[in-house]
Amino acid sequence: MKTTFIRPNIGRLPSGPFLDDGRMEPLEMAVLAGLTPPDVECALYDDRIEAIPYDEPTDLVAISAHTYTARRAYEISAEFRKRGVPVVMGGFHPTLAPDEAAQHSDAVYTGDAEFQWADVIEDARNGELKARYSAPVGAPQVGGVLPRRDLFADKDYLPIALMQFSRGCRYGCSFCAIHGFFHHNHSVRPTNEVLAEIEQLDDRVIFFVDDNFLADHEAAKPFLRELIPLGVRWVSQASIDMADDPELMDLLEASGCLGHVVGFESLDPRSLREMRKAPNLLRGDWDRYQAQCEILRAHHLQTWAAFVLGCDHDTEQSVRETVDFAIENKFCFAAFNILMPYPGTPLYDQLAAENRLLFDGQWWLHPDYRFNHAAFVPRNMTPDQLTEAAYYCRKKFNTKASIFRRVWDFKTHLSSLTRLGIYLQYNPLVAREALLKQGMLFGLSRHLVRPR
Ligand code: B12
Q1: If both were cysteines, with which of 71, 88, 92, 414 could 442 make a disulfide (CB 3.0 to 4.6 Å apart)?
Q2: CATH of the domain at 69
Q3: In a mutational test of the pocket of ligand 1, which residue from 13, 66, 71, 105 has the highest number of ligand atoms less than 8 Å from its CB?
Q4: Rg value, the chain, Cα
Q5: What is the pLDDT of residues 8-21, one digit of tens each?
């Protein structure tokens, strides 16, 4: 038996196909292949870089879809099904919108693959694939399953090893897709299993792709202590409340942490309250994160700051000011994301109830929706004004002048050759990608294949 794993692209550029130069390994595909019985042949095709060989013989196709790749995933699925090959879809979008995914696949898998993927393979082998598999979520790679990284060979991914320490997050931010998937669950892998996986790697920087690596400080500390003697260099995603725990900050630095993606989201505490961004509001006094940023810098952490733009208190001006804050703080990278109504989030339900959703409430399927465009009606500006203001931030942060200005920080980017290397190597790449994807259409065709 053969299973083909597919990672879909987002879509196409106005000028033609989009090749993702900043592509990272699709860890979920390697985890799925690692969970697959050894007698099953596994093939991986990454739609971000290569053509999918629809006519190559295979017995089962497994597609992982996010909301922004759902339209493309459905196109790919239709091609395989036309050829009589059964398709199973899983991942964030099928879990959050299973009825929609069911219209475009033979089987929908909700939740984590660890729990029922073996059943899917067995059922497919016997020609008895079920329409729905409803699995729970929990600790990643239970039983010490190792991802099949051999499937990444020859695909020319960035030299960064993606790995999991935990899954989920205990916070419930209203715009975030995480708690719709994990139901506020945060599960940590046994330390010895993560260490065994690290041992298999070469000398690459590790990216722990946890939703919030530091959602539970006390669970992270013993793991960080074990990392210290290994001398690895790593990055992750974590909430800003880490700065209020001095022991944790010391351990981060000692264990080789180079920095985190940190959700600052907004500079307006009213917006943070509206978003229920609890970890950003734990301090009584509001100093626009200045004390916390200083603590991150004192530990040489290079920050990838993430912002969510377009909350009800935002104006065009407040959105534009966000980029000045990001440049002044000399962040290594920054993401200026428009507030997006992802399905399964409280934000989506709220905007739907207020009749403020655009694109028929399904921007991810709409033939006219474009990446990085507003998909709802903001309070204090038009959707186009929000799109433009966010694009302004993206452009200004990624100019050569901004890259030059931000590098002059002896506590972070200039504190070691490794850090300077990361800054200089990835800034041009991230800048190019951020601007290139602006306005990208979802999927390749303007006609979505009709559901069966
Ligand atoms: C790392 C990461 C990135 C990396 C890219 C990683 C890569 N490989 O290319 C970077 C930082 C570049 C990134 C960018 C973006 N990301 Co991102 N990212 C993640 C993150 C944190 C981890 C992904 C990962 O590797 N997880 C580990 C794997 C093992 O977990 P998994 O994918 O959930 O897979 C498990 C199950 O879902 C299931 N499963 C998954 N697929 C399938 C398929 C089948 C058939 C089956 C049976 C089961 C199954 O089994 C797996 C094992 O348990 C996720 C959050 C998350 N928890 O996944 C967000 C996440 C996927 N990203 C998200 C978003 C929005 C984005 C951006 C659009 C942000 C932006 N505005 O620019 C961009 C778009 C990227 C692009 N294509 O251009 C959202 C998607 C929400 C949604 N509803 O789709 C997420 C969920 C974060 C969030 N807080 O909401 N991202």
Answers
A1: 71
A2: 3.40.50.2300
A3: 66
A4: 22
A5: 999 988 777 777 77
**Residue in the block written with tokens 């403020």:** 356
Same domain assignment for residues 154 and 281: yes
Distance 425 CA to ligand 1 centre (A): 23
116 Cα nearest atom in ligand 1:
47
* Claim to verify: residue 168 and residue 128 sit in the same structural domain: no
pTM of this prediction exceeds 0.90: yes
Q: How far apart are the C-alpha atoms of 253 and 345, rounded to whole Å?
A: 34
Give residue 103's domain range: 2-134
Q: Which residues contact 374 (CB under 8 A, 6 or more apart)?
A: 310, 338, 358, 383, 384, 386, 387
Residues 239 and 307 in one domain: yes
Decide the pairing of beta strands 107-110 and 87-90.
Answer: parallel
- Residue owning tokens 């993702």: 20
- Single residue among 109, 134, 159 that ends a domain in this structure: 134
The protein residue with its alpha carbon nearest to ligand 1, atom 33, reads 91
My answer on whether 297 and 351 are in the same domain is yes
Q: Edge-to-edge strand order for the sheet containing 441-442?
A: 16-17, 11-13, 441-442
Ligand 1: which of 3, 13, 64 to mutate, most ligand atoms within 8 Å of CB? Answer: 64
Shared domain for 333 and 209, answered yes or no, is: yes
Using one digit for the tens of pLDDT, what is the confidence trace for 396-437? Answer: 999 999 999 999 999 999 999 999 999 999 999 999 998 888
Q: What is the mean pLDDT of residues 51-56?
A: 96
